[in-house]
UniProtKB/TrEMBL annotation:
<keyword id="KW-0496">Mitochondrion</keyword>
<dbReference type="Pfam" id="PF00378">
    <property type="entry name" value="ECH_1"/>
</dbReference>
<dbReference type="InterPro" id="IPR035984">
    <property type="entry name" value="Acyl-CoA-binding_sf"/>
</dbReference>
<comment type="similarity">
    <text>In the C-terminal section; belongs to the enoyl-CoA hydratase/isomerase family.</text>
</comment>
<dbReference type="InterPro" id="IPR051053">
    <property type="entry name" value="ECH/Chromodomain_protein"/>
</dbReference>
<dbReference type="GO" id="GO:0005782">
    <property type="term" value="C:peroxisomal matrix"/>
</dbReference>
<dbReference type="GO" id="GO:0004165">
    <property type="term" value="F:delta(3)-delta(2)-enoyl-CoA isomerase activity"/>
</dbReference>
<dbReference type="InterPro" id="IPR000582">
    <property type="entry name" value="Acyl-CoA-binding_protein"/>
</dbReference>
<keyword id="KW-0809">Transit peptide</keyword>
<dbReference type="GO" id="GO:0000062">
    <property type="term" value="F:fatty-acyl-CoA binding"/>
</dbReference>
<keyword id="KW-0597">Phosphoprotein</keyword>
<dbReference type="Pfam" id="PF00887">
    <property type="entry name" value="ACBP"/>
</dbReference>
<keyword id="KW-0576">Peroxisome</keyword>
<comment type="function">
    <text>Able to isomerize both 3-cis and 3-trans double bonds into the 2-trans form in a range of enoyl-CoA species. Has a preference for 3-trans substrates.</text>
</comment>
<dbReference type="InterPro" id="IPR014748">
    <property type="entry name" value="Enoyl-CoA_hydra_C"/>
</dbReference>
<dbReference type="InterPro" id="IPR014352">
    <property type="entry name" value="FERM/acyl-CoA-bd_prot_sf"/>
</dbReference>
<dbReference type="InterPro" id="IPR001753">
    <property type="entry name" value="Enoyl-CoA_hydra/iso"/>
</dbReference>
Amino acid sequence: MALAGAVRCWRLGAGPSSLQMQALSLHMSKTAMGASQKDFESAMNQVKLLKKDPGNEVKLKLYALYKQTTEGPCNTPRPGVFDLINKAKWDAWNALGNLPKETARQNYVDLVSDLSSSDSSSQVKPEADRKQPGYETLVVTSEDSITKIMMNRPAKKNALTIQMYREIMLALEAASKDDSTIIVLTGNGDYYSSGNDLMNFMNIPPGEMEKEAKNGAILLRDFVGCFIDFPKPLVAVINGPAIGISVTILGLFDLVYASDRATFHTPFTHLGQSPEGCSSYTFPKIMGQAKAAEMLMFGKKLTAREACAQGLVTEVFPDSTFQKEVWTRLKAYSKLPRNTLHISKQSIRNLEKEKLHAVNAEENSVLQERWLSDECINAVMSFLSRKAKL
Ligand SMILES: CCCC/C=C/CC(=O)SCCNC(=O)CCNC(=O)[C@H](O)C(C)(C)COP(=O)(O)OP(=O)(O)OC[C@H]1O[C@@H](n2cnc3c(N)ncnc32)[C@H](O)[C@@H]1OP(=O)(O)O
């Protein structure tokens, strides 16, 4: 990056970081009189401070320039065909031919200066800059090859409104096409999500119940369909209690990490409703018929540890270290070869897709009927009139 670039980084951030200062002074000294041995040593130290992996191609270039500066033209025999790494390094060095040591040193210092500047500018980007615009009920951010979709109605325990279902679908659609490796769904505040917003059932004009139930079933079919078809690894980061649909779709995720404060509750019978999110198929498969019945029919609420023992949750972490441990893990996973990861996900999931879509359709048609039942209407009215809480 040129001098103007380094200065621009300052203006964007609160002030110059030590890395930016080093990049700038390196740039100024080398431009004035050519890179000295001291500049070269300083650049070698700076390489160790880079936060972002520059990639193999750049690393090979740095290696070659380093060898050329310190030893001159390549003077060792080419490694054997199976010694792939050393062969690549040798090739990079050898490709520099008779480049003079001083030029190699200058090029090394220039390259490190560019890397440091772009590394610093990517580090100082505040969260507000990374937030993707266009969502009212979610905060969607992308960093470290991870797109995070955070449900953002903490005052309502992240209950899912119609708008929120739609925005999650849009965010998933965008994430399936962006350059992220892993997609995370999580909640803001003390709840992961309290499930369907029961206000979705309110304000329906008389005579429009059937139509609204049908529209609800279509929305739900599309929503669950997005999870069935999602092509990249999907991770649920369960920061607190989860209820209803936010639990049932977990069978369609690839990893489920939970805080030990989380609980898992599918009280459908209490609400006059029936299982959705393909849980009538995925839960018995994951935890066995008897445990699935206890959850889906009798509304047994599971602790995070119980859900983990039954295979619904991948791993449970203490709440005090939950975010730190989970994000460290996910950042490491996000560095895995992206295409291979996506292909593996697809081979694990593709065989089931047709079945899952059929289950989704069947569940929604049953649920459409349930929403019109007295049992469901009474349960919703009871919650809304503050008589009942789960
Ligand atoms: C179209 C697709 C349909 C898909 C169908 C899916 C089925 C399901 O998801 S079934 C699950 C439905 N969820 C519930 O029945 C949960 C109802 N909520 C509660 O029982 C409680 O609110 C709670 C146990 C989650 C939390 O209790 P707590 O005492 O800690 O807090 P509250 O004061 O009750 O909640 C704060 C605030 O949030 C509102 N709220 C919470 N959950 C919902 C919800 N699911 N729907 C609508 N509103 C919800 C609650 O009313 C409070 O609002 P106010 O501060 O305005 O009173």
